[in-house]
Automatic annotation (TrEMBL), chain A:
The chain crosses the membrane at residues 238-261, 293-313, 376-393, 424-444, 456-484, 491-509. Belongs to the binding-protein-dependent transport system permease family. LivHM subfamily. One of its GO terms (cellular component) is plasma membrane. This is Branched-chain amino acid ABC transporter permease. GO terms for biological process: amino acid transport. Coiled coil: none annotated. One of its GO terms (molecular function) is transmembrane transporter activity. InterPro entries: ABC_transp_permease (IPR001851), ABC_UrtB_bac (IPR017779), BCAA_transport_permease (IPR052157). It comes from Paracoccus kondratievae.
UniProtKB/TrEMBL annotation, chain B:
Pfam families: Peripla_BP_5. It comes from the Bacteria. The keyword NAD does not apply. NCBIfam families: urea_ABC_UrtA (TIGR03407). InterPro entries: ABC_urea-bd_UrtA, Peripla_BP_I. Keywords: Signal. Residues 1-21 form the signal peptide. This is Urea ABC transporter substrate-binding protein.
Length: 526, 430
């Protein structure tokens, strides 16, 4: 009946028919294959109906649903539904009262492209830039006229640039563009470099008119990309190195001064990460505004918590076992298991959510390299911790005593240094640094009871390679291993790269048993 | 001679009552063999809780054969040899009627000889690499043809032409990727369009691999990552993808080991739009599922606890076992094993699970996209249920093999061309 009425209406009132069909198309959105539905999305977007944008935005966000009770199409926000077509409120609903309209990545991409065309007329320049980028990601010749209209009235430079790139991308795939237009578009896109430009240009190699221009453009881009690739590997190596440095530096101190292989070092790192989690939990419930400061608050707390545990372990267990390396090894390993299971019992075995503050998310472009902010901050932080330790060792009384004990324990004791106290404080300092490392690692790794296990072996390799007790050795060792690892990884795969590093260290130790920067300490004298 | 005969009859009557009494009042013990500590506790603890809930529900319904069920929980502590010891303790010591347990393939392989020797029953609830069918084991998780292959087919439908097969370096990813590689090649995908990559357990530095994937995916052909990366290593992987600006619309990742439980408690923002393939999602719109979720929330006392695919597998396996015991009229493993084949129980997705002759069950295949709430929006599901295939058709060694535990074959690796049992020694060992 409805169909007949619709046809009749179409015949009588063409203008009304358009509005009718908008609703018909919208109601058909949940049905059929993803391809059919993509066509419907295009039809909705090009209908010019003011409701299209809200409808499609809801579809992309997964908020569009069908009411089970009466089959109405609704937009669900925070548990209350509004009719998607009339805009009338449709009461509050739970997840179980509605069938969500399915949307997958492809359809979402399609809707975004359609919304992009809609967004080109948005109020704010940033929204228009975003819309242009969306068009560029999925260029469609049908959008050309909308782009040109937008370009003609665009005043913002940034949005204008984005629109021009988008227009060029569309021109390259438009069948009816003139050769001149296409050559111009090619030049514009080639300037941008990067993988995205390669993708746009590569199909043009089969175009007789643009073949040569495309080939030179591609060769240029490839050269730049190769250089960029080396830069990227170096950066990744340094960034891995800084993570290793953070994890290993505390270990290096305890190993160097006390001669103790602290197997629980990884667990102290894990406790630092859990401290961050606790701080964020408190901030989330009591002061959400402070979230960006959570890491700064967590740092001193993590240091204190882990340093206290470190001192307790030293006074309670390790002190009684000095001079018996095998027993300390086993005892600290036992401590690591206890700490792990304690955390598992208190916090549960699941990963805990530690959020990234806004200033640690995303990436920044430097010389064509996209460097992620969390890695940049961790590298700076690692260097800051290194500097802090240097200061402690060189400029404080404790540092002086530590160095004395490292070099000659007996003589230091005879000079009146309370070596037992120095041992405890050193152990505490090393543990505290592990806690600081935990705060940083919570930003790039899972916060789970197993967090520490992943780092303990790598840390040992760094310490052994760099030379126990030598900060400079740890620094050099961490960055060398990081870079070597990243150079080997593309050649051999992540698994083999690790094996290669291990063999490399074994061979190196044969040549220089005390590492890169040997120090005289109890650990190496024995 | 009156007295002795009286005594004898009294005795026999006593014994009789005793035996009867044991039958009706002694509870039936059910073993639960899941790690509650160690690395696997993250996944397995939930399954222990789910089993306790199922047993409690069954007892509320009056138990099985008029007897109550009694759970016996042991902790194999993510230690593979300990799994075998604990299994022996359950079967020989506690005399359990059946065991529900294991997660990793290596733990399953570790307990197999024990179940064979002591002739008991194991219900294994996790998706695995296939290439195995044992008389004493019922596989309620997915075989590769119920999870991996349908997911790849869905992506092919979505226009994906280039494939990254990324996995953690152990038996499940290696075997699954071998099957997928052969499958892709059979479908005409060229060698240079497949990139295979393995990483160690707990990998946390994904910079190089993500850069490689980015480069691999920038040829203009639609690229997808098929991930058999093990639980914990996933989060840093997705974070790195997001940080390097790769969205799910550009290069989607479909994972076979990431479920609701793994997503619980992590920031899902960088994961939105990436996919997982399972046979059940908590978001399935079905009354039986809602009932299960409500019961789970009530049992755990928290409406934040999620349900996941291996839990559904235990739900199906447990109900099948109850039905088989009732059909056999006894908990004797031999009789229950024979009664199991052909048992039919409803699953939580609105269909039916049927136990096949190869001890694998029918399951619907599903693909879901991760949403901002840490749940999955189902974007595709198979029409009806797919029977599990123990021996993959895509591997040269197992193509001709079938498993059939009914007469007259009664064999876990029967070669259909040579008509012999034990046709292959290809069982992927640990």
């Amino acid at each position: 009946m409805r169909l007949i009425r619709l046809i009749l209406l179409c015949l009588i009132m063409p203008a009304a028919a358009l509005a009718q069909s908008f609703e018909e198309i919208a109601r058909a959105l949940p049905e059929g294959s993803y391809d059919d539905r993509a066509d419907r999305v295009s039809a909705l977007a090009s209908s010019g109906d003011p409701r299209a944008e809200a409808l499609l935005t809801a579809l992309v966000g997964g908020d569009l649903a069908v009411l089970k009770s009466d089959g109405r199409l609704v937009i669900v926000t925070d548990g209350s539904a509004t009719d998607a077509l009339s805009g009338d409120p449709a009461g509050s609903v739970t997840r179980r009262d509605v069938t969500p309209v399915r949307v997958n990545n492809n359809l979402r991409g399609h809707v975004r492209a359609a919304l992009g065309t809609l967004g080109l007329v948005a109020e704010s320049p940033a929204a228009r830039t975003r819309a242009a980028a969306q068009v560029e990601a999925a260029p469609d010749p049908a959008q050309l006229s909308a782009l040109e209209a937008a370009l003609s009235r665009e005043t913002d430079t940034k949005a204008r640039d984005a629109l021009e790139i988008a227009r060029a991308s569309v021109l390259l795939v438009a069948p009816d563009a003139t050769p001149d237009e296409r050559a111009e578009a090619l030049a514009l896109i080639a300037e941008r470099r990067g993988a995205a430009a390669q993708v746009r240009i590569r199909p043009l190699l089969s175009d007789p008119a643009l073949k040569d221009a495309a080939r030179t453009a591609l060769a240029d881009i490839e050269r730049a990309e190769a250089l960029r690739g080396w830069g990227l590997t170096l950066w990744q190596g340094l960034s891995l190195g800084s993570v290793l440095l953070l994890a290993a530096i505390g270990l290096s101190i305890t190993f160097g001064v006390c001669g103790v292989i602290n197997m629980a070092h990884g667990e102290l790192v894990m406790l630092g990460a859990y401290t961050t989690f606790m701080v964020q939990e408190v901030i989330r419930t009591h002061a959400p505004g402070l979230f960006d400061w959570s890491l700064a608050i967590a740092l001193p707390l993590a240091f204190l918590v882990t340093a206290a545990i470190g001192i307790a372990v030293e006074r309670g267990i390790v002190r009684r076992l000095y001079g018996r390396p095998l027993e300390t090894l086993l005892a600290t390993w036992g401590v690591s298991l206890i700490l792990q299971q304690a955390v598992r019992s208190i916090f549960g075995p699941n990963n805990r959510q530690v959020g990234n503050p806004s200033w640690m998310s995303g990436s920044v472009e430097v010389l064509g390299l996209s460097l992620t902010w969390n890695r940049i901050w961790i590298m700076l932080f690692a260097l800051a911790v290194f500097g802090f330790l240097m200061l402690v060792l060189r400029r404080t009384a404790l540092g002086l005593q530590m160095r004395a004990v490292t070099q000659n324990r007996a003589m230091a004791a005879e000079m009146g240094i309370r070596t037992g106290r120095v041992d405890a404080l050193t152990f505490g300092l090393g543990a505290g640094i592990a806690g600081l490392a935990g705060v940083a690692l919570s930003q790039i790794d899972n916060v789970s009871p197993n967090l520490g296990q992943g780092y303990i072996v790598d840390s040992f390799m760094v310490v052994v390679f760099g030379g126990a007790g030598s900060l400079w050795g740890t620094l050099a060792g961490a960055f060398t291993l990081g870079i070597v690892n990243k150079l080997a990884e593309p050649l051999a795969g992540a698994m083999l790269a690790k094996v290669m590093i291990l063999i490399f260290i074994i061979l190196f130790i044969q040549k220089r048993p005390r590492g890169l920067f040997p120090t005289r300490g109890r650990a190496v004298e024995g | 001679m009156k007295l002795p005969s009286l005594t004898a009859s009294l005795l026999s009557a006593l014994i009789g009552t005793a035996a009867l009494a044991e039958d009706t009042s002694e509870p039936i013990k059910v073993g639960i063999l899941h790690s509650l500590s160690g690395t696997m506790a993250i996944s397995e603890t939930t399954l222990k809780d789910a089993m306790l809930m199922l047993i409690e529900q069954q007892n509320a319904r009056g138990g099985v054969l008029g007897r109550k069920l009694e759970p016996v929980v042991v902790d194999p502590a993510s230690d593979w040899p300990l799994f075998a010891e604990k299994a022996r303790e359950l079967i020989a010591g506690d005399q359990v009627a059946a065991v529900f347990g294991c997660w990793t393939s290596v733990s399953r392989k570790s307990v197999l000889p024990v179940f064979r020797e002591l002739d008991s029953i194991l219900f294994y609830p996790v998706q695995y690499e296939g290439e195995e069918s044992e008389r004493n084991v019922f596989y309620t998780g997915a075989a590769p043809n119920q999870q991996a292959i349908p997911a790849v087919e869905y992506l092919m439908d979505q226009g994906v032409e280039r494939w990254v097969l990324a996995g953690t370096d152990y038996v499940y990813p290696r075997t699954t990727n071998k099957i997928l590689e052969q499958f892709l090649k059979d479908r005409g995908v060229a060698d240079e369009d497949i990139l295979i990559n393995y990483t160690p357990f707990g990998q946390s530095d994904w910079q190089t691999i993500v850069s490689d994937i980015k480069a691999f995916g920038s040829t203009g052909k639609k690229t997808a990552v098929v991930s058999t990366i093990n639980g914990d290593a996933n989060v840093p992987f997705y974070k790195e993808l997001a940080n390097q600006g790769i969205t799910a619309e550009q290069i989607p990742v479909v994972a076979f080991s990431v479920g609701e439980e793994e997503l619980a408690g992590i920031d899902t923002a960088p994961l939105v739009g990436h996919m997982a393939a399972w046979n059940y999602f908590q978001s399935v719109d079905d009354p039986a599922n809602y009932e299960f979720i409500d019961a789970w929330h009530k049992f755990t006392g928290s409406d934040k606890r999620v349900t996941n695919d291996p839990m559904e597998a235990h739900y199906i396996g447990f109900n099948m076992w109850v039905k088989a015991v009732e059909k056999a009229g006894t908990t004797d493993p031999d009789k229950v094993i024979d009664a199991m084949v052909g048992i039919e129980v409803p699953n939580l997705t609105g269909g039916k699970a049927i136990m096949g002759k190869d001890h694998h069950i029918t399951k619907p295949a599903m693909v879901g996209e991760i949403n901002a709430e840490g749940q999955f929006d189902i974007v595709w599901e198979s029409e009806g249920e797919v029977p599990g295939d123990a021996w993959s058709d895509y591997l040269p060694g197992s193509k001709d093999l079938i498993a059939d535990w009914t007469d007259p074959i009664r064999c876990g690796n029967y070669n259909t061309t040579t008509k012999t049992c034990g046709g292959a020694e290809t069982t992927a060992s640990n």
